[in-house]
Amino acid sequence: MASSPTTPSKTDRTPRPNHVLRHLRGGRSPAEFAAAVRRAAREIGERVSCDARYVGRVEAGEIRCPNYAYERVFLHMFPGRTLTDLGFSPRASVRGRRTRSTDETQEANDPYEPYDPSRTAGPPAPHDPFPPPERHQDHKESDVLRRAFMTGGGATVAAASLGPLGLAHEAEAGTRGARRPGAGEAGAVEEAVRRIRLLDDRHGADGLYRRAAEPLRAAFALLDAGATRQATADRLHAGAGELAISVGWLAHDSGRFDDARSHYAEALATARVTGDEALEAHAFCNTAFLARDAGRPREAVRAAQAAQRVARPLGSARLMSLLALREAGGWAGLADRTACEQALARAHALHERGHSDADPEWMSFYGEAELEGLEAQCWSTLGDWSRGAGHARRATRLQDPHFTRNLALFTAELADCLARGGRPDESAGAGLRVLDLLDQVQSSRIQTMLAGTARVLLPHRRASGVSEFLERHTALRHRD
């Protein structure tokens, strides 16, 4: 990591020591704490070159908000806390400044930092409870920070406030002739996208979808109202498109395929109206995934290939890797093993190129665990249960436990492959682990997978653990 040997120049804010992190360091030396940070990073697949000097700069307040790689590491080390709980400033209050100190600039350019949306005026970080989307002179939390949407331009919009376990929203009636949408409304749409994704990662789509539909309608109402500045209009279009994809994914994961298809088409249309290639690639990516799950593998291949054509100029190898996996899933559905293997090989080769600043923020979920999990799905679709189980097992071992939904999904994939591969006792063990996770996760897709596994295991009721799994699974179905 780059560090400056000089004292950072002052902007309009004097650095304030981070006493919280100093307290959490306890009796460890800065070097010992830095080593703990590096170990934690390896546990979740991040790469940070933390040293004693970096720790000193954080505690001195020179680094007011860490980059996204360090953010994930700190939140992994201290679960249940936000960046502000750890003594850092909200990301938006740092990134919104026109000038930054030398050290802040070098921190933002850390070579191991994943995509930082602050470089392209993207949305605020998901862990800041109500971050302002742009500069605020007094840094006080105002009403707009407590709403995902607010009134503007004669449109009736919805407020979305995401608590730790769910999405709540309240409608607010707008008054005709009120001011047109501005940066606050654009930031609110972006924040809604972040919060929906965060909750989905932790708890799955069921229970979120219905409540997320109203904010989506509000976002498009803001578009209809029209922004006075082109930059704000662009942000609203991009935010509304990403929100349509997020809501579409909630529909997809909860088994509402027709709704999902409609939302993805809406996002695609928004992308094409504005010429937003990144949004178009994202919409095609999700359309390919949906087509595969809906039993339309040829459409999955076409959508994935279209996404790759759009995404190629964007310069993100990680994005191209994911899109190759989407194509591989389509080929597997068509039982074309050769084409599937070729797409999988491309996905691995592209993934090995690592992160870049061009990686879209929404791809934060895509790491080695996701790659293994998607490959497992390909092999299971092709009927190669042994290879499918091997990749699914690796996915469960690599998955960050904070992504509870994905951990449940990959474990369910493992259970199904083991059941169909003639290993009922191991399958039951994996199935029981999924049932334990379903107290936290609500996903119709995972429940459908478990139901299929249970049917396969019925003839093996006498095998070790199978009867317990079947009884608990039956009890869960009756409870739901």
Keywords for this entry:
480 residues; mainly alpha; two-stranded antiparallel ribbon; 59% helix; TPR-like_helical_dom_sf; Tetratricopeptide repeat protein
Topology record:
Layout: H1 19-25, H2 30-43, H3 52-60, H4 68-77, H5 91-95, H6 102-108, E1 157-162, E2 167-172, H7 183-203, H8 209-225, H9 230-253, H10 257-274, H11 277-293, H12 297-311, H13 317-333, H14 337-351, H15 368-381, H16 385-398, H17 404-420, H18 424-437, H19 444-457, H20 466-479
Antiparallel strand pairs: 1-2
Helix pairs in contact: 2-3, 2-4, 7-8, 7-9, 8-9, 9-10, 9-11, 10-11, 11-12, 11-13, 12-13, 13-14, 13-15, 14-15, 15-16, 15-17, 16-17, 17-18, 17-19, 18-20, 19-20
Region (Disordered): 1-27, 85-140
Biased composition (Pro residues): 123-132
Protein name: Tetratricopeptide repeat protein
What does this entry look like structurally?
The protein is mainly α and 480 residues long. It has 4 domains: 19-112, no CATH class; 145-275, no CATH class; 286-356; 378-480, no CATH class. Helices cover 59% and strands 2% of the residues. It contains 20 helices and 2 strands. It has helices at residues 19-25, 30-43, 52-60, 68-77, 91-95, 102-108, 183-203, 209-225, 230-253, 257-274, 277-293, 297-311, 317-333, 337-351, 368-381, 385-398, 404-420, 424-437, 444-457, 466-479; strands at 157-162, 167-172. The protein has a two-stranded antiparallel sheet. Strand 1 (157-162) and strand 2 (167-172) form a beta hairpin. The longest helix has 24 residues, at 230-253. The radius of gyration is 23 Å and the shape is globular. Mean pLDDT is 76; it is low at 1-12 and 95-177.
